[in-house]
Amino acid sequence: MLKINKDVYKLCDEAENNLKSIYSKIDNISFFNSKKVLNAFIENNISESDFVSSTGYGYNDFGRDKIEKVYATIFKSEDALVRNQFISGSHALTITLFALLRPNDTLLSITGKPYDTLDEVIGIKENDSSLKSFNINYEQIELKNNDFDYEKIKEVISSKYYKVIEIQRSKGYSTRKSLSIEKLEKVIKEIRKYSPNSIVMVDNCYCEFVSEKEPIEIGADIAVGSLIKNLGGGIASNGAYIVGKAKLIKLCAERLNLPGEGKDVGPSLGANKFILQGLYFAPNVVSNAVKVAILTSYLLEKIGYDVEPKFNEERVDIVQSIIFNNEKDLINYARIIQNSSAIDSNAFIEKTDMPGYSDKIIMASGNFTQGSSIELSCDGPIRNPYILYQQGSLTYDYGKIAVLNAISFLLNNK
Q1: CA 403, CA 318: separation in Å to the nearest integer?
Q2: Distance CA 406, CA 403 (A)
Q3: Which residues, listed in sequence order, are joined to residue 203 by a DSSP beta bridge?
Q4: Contact between 361 and 379 (Cβ < 8 Å)
Q5: Could you list the pLDDT tens digit for every one of the 414 residues in the chain?
Q6: Residue 48: is it exposed, middle or buried by C-beta count within 10 angstroms (0-12/13-18/19+)?
Q7: Are strands 164-168 and 199-203 parallel, antiparallel or unpaired?
Q8: 249 three-state secondary structure
Q9: What are the residue ranges of helices labelled H in 160-308?
Q10: CA–CA–CA angle 128, 129, 133 (5° rounding)
């Protein structure tokens, strides 16, 4: 049952009064991106007949093909691959890496080590199916003061050719800040000076529609994201997207499906309507998620916890980090978020081993779609400094209720 402390309600009233101007800016971004989405629907003549499902090989799935035109329009890219055959964002990233890299090529990450689920994909952790097992090399450059290390990047890419230069915008399970579109634009311009033929690949997960611009329009060659994060709007039940240059999308489509058929195959299996409807709602849903993250940041800092980003800092993604510095509070907060969810509210979550992760993970995800990060969820590795990564919320009110409930529990059990 929901047990929100009266003092927490008062603190929330104070927060919302102080956050009005910040929320207004988020509403403006949502309005801008809503126009972008609506224009893409109108420009590509989306009609009810595009909801028709295909099966089997998926030949002549006109709705699926139109979805990809809509994505290309929104991202200002030459082409797009948007498929429910993708299991996750990590799967789409894997397809992209294997599509673009060949034996003896080198992948360079300029944002340090990528997200944990790519460790075995790259070969950081041994796996016979990794890029490393195909003699594809990997190097990384760490960030410097939460920004790109421009001097190191210049030195490294001037002395050696890197086929793919990968940038992960969101922080993952690291302690660094997520990267703004402005920083992304600056570093891509630098890369073009010293290695113009390298493919700049952006992991855009958690970042879509938080800003007015996206990676392709500021110079990236290819960008990847998940449909059970921002752009699915909580309606798409699975899938991911890849957008970018047509020749690169062709390679990705042939890696996902098979050479010679590429984008021409892949049945939609009834997903077209949900992918389009989720995208239609996405700008507003993302704005709700960002507002919940800001409210969380304000309130948790007020009661004595470290947070990143602070409530008044620029937002780059929908992720809010809460640094608990102890295991007990981290686990209790996650459990109350789970208990405040519409689905599986009675689940008693435990830290556990999860595929793709080295540490035990605690995960609250009382969502309509398993693993959905645009619905309210929080998760984190059980390791110092005990950071919980909260993201999402389809509506502001549901997110607010859950956060107030969790904060009340923390205060009542200090």
Answers
A1: 15
A2: 5
A3: 168, 224
A4: yes
A5: 667 888 999 999 999 999 999 999 999 999 999 999 999 999 999 999 999 999 999 999 999 999 999 999 999 999 999 999 999 999 999 999 999 999 999 999 999 999 989 999 999 999 999 999 999 999 999 999 999 999 999 999 999 999 999 999 999 888 899 999 999 999 999 999 999 999 999 999 999 999 999 999 999 999 999 999 999 999 999 999 999 999 999 999 999 999 999 999 999 999 999 999 999 999 999 999 999 999 999 999 999 999 999 999 999 999 999 999 999 999 999 999 999 999 999 999 999 987 767 789 999 999 999 989 999 999 999 999 999 999 999 999 999 999 999 999 999 887
A6: exposed
A7: parallel
A8: helix
A9: 181-194, 246-256, 272-302
A10: 65
The per-residue DSSP string of 368-407 comes to SSTT-SSSSEEEEESSTT-EEEEE--SSHHHHHHHHHHHH
Neighbours of 347 (CB within 10 A): 14
- Rounded CA gap, 304 and 147, in Å? 27
Distance (Å, whole) CA 122 – CA 126 = 9
- Cα angle 104-201-83, degrees, rounded to a multiple of 5: 105
**Other CB atoms within 10 A of residue 211 CB:** 18
Other CB atoms closer than 10 Å to residue 175's CB: what's the count?
A: 11
| Degrees, nearest 5: CA angle 75-76-77 | 90
The CA-based dihedral angle spanning residues 379, 381, 383, 387, taken in that order and rounded to the nearest 10 degrees: -30
DSSP 413: T
**Could you report the per-residue pLDDT of 207-218, keeping only the tens digit for each?**
999 999 999 999
Residue located via tokens 């947070």:
307
pTM for the structure as a whole: 0.95
**Contact partners, residue 247, CB within 8 Å, separation at least 6:** none
Q: Are strands 137-140 and 106-109 parallel, antiparallel or unpaired?
A: parallel
Cβ atoms of 315 and 207 closer than 8 Å = no
